[in-house]
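Record format v2
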Amino acid sequence: MRMLQRKIGVFGLALVAMGLGFPAASWAQDDLLQGFDSPPTVSQPPKDADTEEDQGPKEDQTSWVELDGSLSIQGSYNYAHQAPPPGMPDWRGLSRLKLVGRADLKMTFSENWKAQLGGYGFYDWTYEIRGLGQYPDPLLALYRQELEPREAWVSGKMGPVDVKLGRQIVSWGKSNFLRVVDVFNPIDNREPGLVDVGDLKLPMTMSRVDVYWGDWQFTAVGVHEIKFNKNPVLGSDFYPAPFTLPEEIPLSNGENTEYGGAITATLGAWELGFYGANHFNDAGHAEPLTAPPGAFVLRHERLLTRGFSVSLTSGSWVMKLEGAQVQGLTFMPSPTQTLRLTRYDLLAGVEYYGWSDTTLMVETAAQQYPGWTAALNNTLEKPAELSGQTVVALTRDFSNKTVHAMAALFFFGPTLQNGGLQRYSLGYDLADALVVTGGVLMYQPGQPGDLLTRASDNDRVFFDVKWSF
Amino acid sequence: MNAYADLRSIRSVWMFSLLVVGLGAGLTAQPARADDPKARKIMEQVRDRDDGATASSDMEMVLIDKRGNQRVRAVRTYRRKEGKDKHSIMFFLSPADVKGTGFLTYDYDQEKKDDDQWLYLPALKKTKRIASGDKSGSFMGSDMNYSDMTTPNLNDFDYTLVKEEDVDGQKTWRIEAVPRNETVMDETGYSKRVIWVRQDNFMVIRSVGYIYKSEDMKFMQVVKLEKIDGVWAPVEMHVATKRGADTLHQTILRFTNIHHNKPLPAEMFTQRKLEKGL
């Protein structure tokens, strides 16, 4: 081997010596100016009228109405799925082939007043291709097609006060992947690991007021629309149980309004946040009914969350810490026994930006119930006294940022024993705003009974061709 | 496009209207040489030249790969001096998949103090704090990196006046800048840089950067320079990454709607404005 390397090295040197094969490694100092080429000829952008005259900075000279959005074709193929039990859908092979579109009409009425009206929709041909008859109606209703309004709001600025009314998204905390204090907007969890990050959070109708005072920001939020995560339903390849629970969704009325407040500050390299929210539990709890025996109903109880976030930036590092106390979590071991518990959540994370064109993010979070009792093993949820999640994500761009690589690992359990998820993807910019992405998603089983153990044969390859406009 | 994958390309943005075509340079694998007081004096004058109390511009970048394929990026930028510090904010206008993204930077005069940087990602509806330690990453896929656009710490480099020579009919000083340690090379992405400074206005009009741990070199030249509102500013630039005589990738930068010393309120350079957008 060493001999071969030596031969290649000698051959290469010989080529260079002959002036063949490889260009000169660098320019001689005296010849440096000869290295500057004339710029290639490219089309000039059309000149705006306002470039001809001095009209001052251009902040407010954009069009008052703009339409932004995207169209994408997404597909996935399950390569590890097992044959289903009789009567259940067969998820082997093609599991997704859909056209996804979103559009946002953005209006700027003045420097201080803006509005947005957005919509989202998709149609998945998988079910027609594979035969509609094998899928239950609730699954088809949720997965085959969708058309719904997304963000729709009007916002205004009055001195130090900002007001935003309508369907919107509020993001609290510093974490990227795991949520501790970010409690309001539900997420689209129908296909874990496959939902575009821009479509992940679902907007809700809210009233929001922000007051700015120096480095401090005071936020008050009222949530008027009660909505919960979009989760897999019975029949989905991600739904782990052979049965489903009826769900009681609280009415979106004044009595049920969720509300909260935040105080955040930027103090040099430090950023602080304090949060409080009175809201419904997205996950809810299974309430056993007295009749018929063995029946349950899923109810969403009211929670009180109080939390904080801290981040510190130093050199190439961003370090983050979040914590929360969640009161009012309800569990019912039997129709006559109700346990109300408090849970403590803690998250630590780092981001590293010290490698060229590369970002590393690590987040780990733990949840603990100090009042945990063995009776909780008799609930449908069976919460662990201590649970945790860890995410490691590495992204890197290549070839002048036309190639985007990402590896993300999700682990569950305080010692990572409850399964995990690996997602590897590679994206390529075919043209401006036209990106094709392909990847693989692999699920690691945990212990018997774990959610991921039951869904661990969902390994799949996927692709996404997205055009933004 | 994944928002996290895009962080890096956007975080290394700074204020192009301040572009100085590499005042500083990366690092050196060469033996340390004595700093030349005359070269340092020139570089101090480059650093201290009047670039306006405020500045704003629209920037278009045409990125051209080896096969001639073109991509176009457009950004609107604003900058304001706050004492000896500089605050800048930029908004991405195109391509469509990054439109609405904003980037805010507080560039501190204190040598030991890191820049403060925030990135607003419209897909996440969130402002993220970004670390500014490394400056060697490509800026939006162009042939520029972050260190090409920031005012360097002159104490990180040894400067040598190589000679005086005419470039495009202008008298210039040719100065060699060599980083004083490995860390600076790693952070800036250059092991050495040669720069040409116009003698009449202290503008850097050309530079050659030796890419750290690579045989590639970057050739940057100001193609068009204008005095706007009493301040000299590059209007068009060309940057080419070369390996020997081969051009691997090149970028054409054009600036329009350039203004200096026009009123820009301090609240323009806040996270509040970053999230509100243009």
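Chain B is about 10% helix and 45% strand.
The helical segments of chain B are 3-11, 37-48, 182-188, 271-276.
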